[in-house]
């Protein structure tokens, strides 16, 4: 049977895709069921449709395997992320960054300084949720105590947390974007800098001017002192604790591949743990495997420190494994190709493709309520379209970050939006207008694309299609 016969029709492909979306929406919002089992249900439906179209089980199985195979290095990087976070907390690297960061606060510069603190925390831990739920909560109390409206402070926390998350080599969303777009990890981060850095500068200046209106406030130094004293009682704080972070980012700047760079980061964290914190080899290896364990009695500090380790990444690991298996079926058996052909047939410019990808990612956030799935599905959906336009795959991964990561916390019914609202105590729609970076970054990307700026063409790309 020829391939043309076994190619699903547009109606079949669309119905299959909408069925998967419906399963996720009903399961997540009405039945409160975990995403893993919902994806399995979606996969079963897709397999049945593929059988009806004419594919045999061997072809379906090989398609699933191909979807996973392309992400094998990414799966190992997931493991390394957990190892780095565990070793960096055990070494005191992450706690030292929080400790020194809190010294930057002053009434006049509270908002821009808070932006930097949240950015650094998320950059080193790779988690926007952890940053908002710990440092963000502390900054909320401090900012509101100074007379700054809670929605403004919450918006600042989101901007810093999601910027750091989006740019961190130890972030699961960054790695998912790279995996889904079939781009390199550091190539992905480098591509995002073109638009994220200008957006960050604009957001910083905006927070600076907004903050000047509240320059007469007084900082609650007692709350800062409690956090710093608790950290200092747990760790021997010194500037040397920043060595693992410096080593990792130096290697990334030198374009050393992600895996050896991250292994070096784990090794450096382990050595620093034993030298400066007096950790035993057993304690270091335990932190790498199951994460750091802390019981200081101070909730904000414990919530930040009790994380990391290989086991902490198994939720994301298994979710990505199932989603990529499903993505392999949709991709290899031409379901996505048939869908995209209709969309791409109307797209004549690279800038329009960028816009469609970003808006589609945002729409998937709103439809499915989950950023992980949006990244994976949109990465699979538009990969070939970027190839046909002569664009680098890291351009796609950049769009996934801008359309998904930047906007997921701005939608009230997404998991991220609900978490941020609950953790910070501010309704999503109240803080959303003040999350300047999250709003500005996607807009800058679209505008610059239509201006022909920072479009990443392949060396043999179609440079005339701007």
Overall description:
The chain is mostly helical and 466 residues long. The chain has a domain at 72-313. 73% of the residues lie in helices and 0% in strands. It contains 23 helices and no strands. It has helices at residues 10-30, 35-53, 57-69, 72-91, 93-101, 110-125, 128-145, 150-167, 172-181, 185-212, 221-234, 243-253, 258-276, 281-290, 299-305, 314-332, 335-344, 350-368, 371-388, 393-405, 415-424, 428-431, 436-450. Helix 2 (35-53) runs parallel beside helix 16 (314-332), helix 6 (110-125) runs antiparallel to helix 7 and helix 16 (314-332) packs parallel to helix 19 (371-388). The protein is globular. It starts with 9 loop residues before the first helix and ends in a 16-residue tail after the last helix. The mean pLDDT is 84.
Defining traits:
0% strand; 466 residues; mainly alpha; globular; 23 helices; 73% helix
Number of helices: 23
Helix content: over 70%
How large is the radius of gyration?
A: 22 Å
Instruction: Estimate the mean pLDDT confidence.
Output: 84
Q: Describe the sheet with the most strands.
A: none
How many E strands?
0
Q: Structural class, from helix and strand content? A: mainly alpha
How big a fraction of the residues is strand? under 5%
Shape: globular
Oligomeric state of the chains in view: single chain
Through-space gap between termini:
40 Å
Could you name the ranges where pLDDT drops below 50 across 5 or more consecutive residues? none
Run of helices and strands? HHHHHHHHHHHHHHHHHHHHHHH
